[in-house]
Amino acid sequence: MNLILRFQLSLMMFAQSFVWGAWYVTAPNYLGTIGFTPADFGWTYSVGPIAGVISPIFVGILADRYVSAEKVLGGINFFGAAAMLLATVLMQDSAPSPTLINFVFFLYMLAFYPTFALLATLTMRHIEDPQKHFPGIRVWGTIGWIVAGFVLTWTGWEKSIDMFYLAVISGLMMGVYCFFLPNTRPMAEGRMDWRQMVGAQAWVLLKNRSFLIFMVCSWLICIPLAFYQQIVSRVVEMADMPIGQTMAYGQISEIVFMVVMPFFFIRLGVKWMLAAGMAAWLLRYVLFALGAPMEISWMILIGIMLHGVCQDFFVVTGQIYTDQLAPKAIRAQAQGMLVILTLGLGMAIGAQLAGYVETRFTPPQSTEYAQMVQDKGRQIVQLEAERNNASADRRDALDTQIAVLQAERKDAREAELKNKNWTFIFGIPAALSALALLLFVVLFRDDRLPLRRKSNVMRKTGVAADGSSAAA
């Protein structure tokens, strides 16, 4: 493969994931200090899945029929950067409106969610052997997310509005870069088939009992997934661990388990690979339920690093199972149906449930401390504005007052988080994971290996037949 082309496509994957990783996981660590409640976070993390069901269809039509994919990708990155910049303006209002900010996040997600499908489309069109080369290019997306997390920690932006500015700047840079990518002209011809676009032809697969059970359990397991994305970073903050860096360990483990996944696949088969992934979700929430209340760092860290098993053993295995079970003519529709039910419907319901559960198990003391955090923050902003126009002597006095307020704000934030009932907050997703696992193990009867040859497993997961990683 041409090395220049490989570099271009790898950098594209890296940059696009960096944009999202710059804010998506750590957003609650700042938004919680300006008035966002658990219910507000429920909407922050619902708008993405909702947008993910709506926008890819229309953006896909645009790229398939009317405009080159790289230009569509560049345009929606510019739109996303503008939406995020607007969100930062709203965040700095004297009384920020979580509802309005979440609506802007929804606009952002309408632009951002289709980018990953466009990345895949653009890459596949320019590489001769996708099974051989795509995993090694795609892995740079995961690396981009990891680097974003480390940058947030190293710069100290993981609890400040600066993370959103980082998303704006990197989004603008990505938008510019897109126009230097290889030309990917639209190729679709003929009339649009709306039944294909909404995946209606794939519904016939649900007549297969095992596939139906798989889809239901996939939907169920994605409900507790939302708890991880919108809550765990604040547990990391409470335990005084580096937030962005610690959360990035989950993506590092994803790369590790992707390498070893084929060897487990051959020995366990589809059913028990899927079951192992679901069991990992159960274990991680048990660890969070036990470790968060006492701030046991090693339990929290293991729970995060189980992300590799959760992601690869269940999500990736599920994609492979779907690909092998579905007839070739409707495989794309089958994958789309899986995404809509899991990362769309499942995640949206999960985000709302996570918001409700956190609200239910947040005592009044925690809410009072949260209000103190907001009040102290407003006082700090006022004093910093006054300091800009003050005399030298007055600045020294203001610096002292600001330092005191910052210490008080930090103590109030710590008390806010410690007063939450973490055992019950994580006990709910643990119970849901256990239910999904039980239903799957008992009802899923398809013991056939849908993977026809060992080499298929290796290619699907990005690992060569000799055991070396294609991502290397």
UniProtKB/TrEMBL annotation:
Name a single GO cellular component.
plasma membrane
Return the InterPro entries for the record: MFS_trans_sf, Nuc_H_symport
Record-linked Gene3D superfamilies: MFS general substrate transporter like domains (1.20.1250.20)
Can you tell me where the transmembrane regions are? 7-25, 45-63, 72-91, 103-124, 136-157, 163-182, 211-228, 248-265, 337-357, 422-444
Question: Where located?
Answer: Cell membrane
* Membrane topology according to the record: Multi-pass membrane protein
Q: Which residues form a coiled coil?
A: 373-415
Major site of localization recorded for this protein: membrane
GO molecular function terms noted in the UniProt entry = cytidine transmembrane transporter activity; uridine transmembrane transporter activity
Ordered alphabetically, the record's keywords are: Cell membrane, Coiled coil, Membrane, Transmembrane, Transmembrane helix, Transport
Domain of life of the source: Bacteria
A Pfam family that the UniProt record links to this protein:
Nuc_H_symport
| Name of this chain's protein | MFS transporter
What organism is recorded for this protein?
Answer: Croceicoccus mobilis
